[in-house]
Design brief:
The protein is of the alpha/beta class and 397 residues long. The chain has helices spanning 12-32, 58-70, 82-88, 107-117, 139-150, 170-173, 186-195, 201-210, 215-223, 225-239, 244-281, 291-334, 347-355, 359-377, 382-392; strands at residues 47-51, 95-98, 127-131, 156-162, 177-180. It has a 5-stranded parallel β-sheet, with helices on one face. Helix 4 (107-117) links the parallel strand 2 (95-98) and strand 3. Helix 8 (201-210) crosses helix 9 (215-223), helix 12 (291-334) packs across helix 13 (347-355) and helix 12 (291-334) runs antiparallel to helix 14. The longest helix is centred in the C-terminal third of the chain and has 44 residues, at 291-334.
């Protein structure tokens, strides 16, 4: 059995800081019980802001730290004691994981977290609140959290995850201890996938490069050949357009492929949730619903619709990031860079685009893709934005 830190790839400095803080937290608990003198606890804080680019492992680090705080093994973060195992499995009653499948964490959710933070731990050493998408807190939600973070109960620890410190309001940011993560190397991610038995070394490295070292995405790509095929379809279609007609078709294919990717991500979970709800209601699939059960089923369908919308938004943005990676490889080829290609499996396409264009054109294409990402985040018409972007990728654009 590996320790709770084993999945934190390439984060040696962060692991050292979190391990030291968890050891101090254990000493604090011991001092409360009067069984040991309190050690220097400056390395421990009641509130943490864990930041890093997508794929750096923010939520992985938060979960590992939460497990180490609940650890009762000889070595802090042992991975084998009940506290570690239940936290890593997300079944520890004293560790609450909060994430959103919509674009914002509303104020009601934030107030619920504050209320739960007041409860003493029922069996563990700490009450730990992990907010995996803290950057999605609305203004009202962030303000609701602020007072709880300013004056927390002595048994509560807040772990907030966000891409950067600037994504949090200044008042919360100033009251948290900051821990920054970095993107691990593709080789380190590939080694992790091989250790986990997800894929062969060759497939693992290809997936890690394609995912740009995003651990969760690399794991999914390595395990799913269909997902790898969808990614290839996404990056090859717009990158090879020659006419306006081809651009429109490429945009449509990109959107349809992203929809297929999003559906694959949520459909199984949606079906499982509906089956579980029907089981709890004592209903068969085709049975006519009562007024009360109809309300519950409708609420579930609305929640699933919001999740599907978020999954599609994320899939499209991921597709545009993959396109940016193609042109990163193209630019590196054009200027004679000696770095490794992200898309080594598409080296022929990269060389072809590099030979048919100039570095200036490549930079212009990158700018158009980034503009499309910004427009989509501002709720622009998805298909029209993608069509405009694809047209701009033509050689004569």
């Amino acid at each position: 059995m590996m320790s709770v830190w084993s999945s934190l790839v390439g984060q040696g400095d962060a692991v050292a800081k979190l391990s030291e803080a968890a050891a101090s937290a254990r000493a604090i608990v011991a001092s409360r019980a009067g069984s040991a003198a309190r050690e220097d606890a400056r390395s421990m804080s009641h509130a943490w802001l864990i930041t890093g680019p997508p794929g750096s492992g923010r939520s992985v680090a938060a979960r590992a730290f939460a497990a180490a705080l609940q650890c009762t093994g000889e070595e802090v973060g042992c991975g084998t004691c009940p506290g570690c195992r239940t936290t890593m499995g997300r079944t520890n009653a004293d560790v609450l994981f909060a994430a959103t499948e919509t674009s914002i964490i509303n104020v009601e959710t934030a107030r619920s977290l504050v209320l739960q933070a007041q409860s003493s731990p029922s069996q563990g050493l700490w009450r730990v609140i992990v907010v995996e998408d803290a950057d999605r807190l609305g203004e009202a939600g962030a303000n609701a959290l602020l007072k709880a973070i300013e004056e927390p109960p002595e048994h509560t620890v807040w772990l907030l995850c966000a891409p950067s410190p600037e994504d949090m309001i200044a008042t919360i940011r100033s009251r948290c201890r900051h821990l920054g993560l970095r993107i691990p190397t593709a080789n380190a991610v590939a080694d992790l996938l091989v250790r986990e038995g997800v894929a062969t070394p060759e497939v693992a490295l290809e997936a890690a490069r394609a995912a740009q070292s995003h651990i969760g995405l690399a794991r999914a790509l390595a395990a799913d050949p269909e997902m790898r095929a969808r990614r290839r379809a996404i990056v090859t279609a717009p990158a090879s357009v020659r006419s306006v007609g081809e651009a429109v078709l490429a945009a449509d294919r990109l959107l349809e492929t992203a929809k297929a990717q999003a559906d694959a991500q949520v459909s199984e979970r949606n079906a499982r949730e509906k089956a579980e709800l029907l089981r709890q209601l004592g209903m068969e699939e085709d049975e006519r619903a009562t007024k009360a059960s109809r309300t519950l089923i409708r609420q579930l369908e609305e929640d699933q619709k919001r999740r599907s919308k978020r999954a599609l938004t994320d899939a499209i943005d991921r597709a545009l990031i993959d396109l940016l990676a193609i042109y990163r490889d193209v630019l590196m080829t054009q200027v004679g860079g000696d770095g490794e290609l992200i898309n080594a499996d598409l080296a022929d396409l990269v060389r072809s685009i590099a030979a048919e264009s100039t570095p200036r054109q490549t930079l212009s294409r990158v700018d158009h893709i980034e503009t499309a990402r910004r427009r989509l985040k501002s709720n622009g018409n998805t298909l029209l934005v993608l069509e405009d972007m694809a047209i701009s990728l033509r050689p004569q654009a």
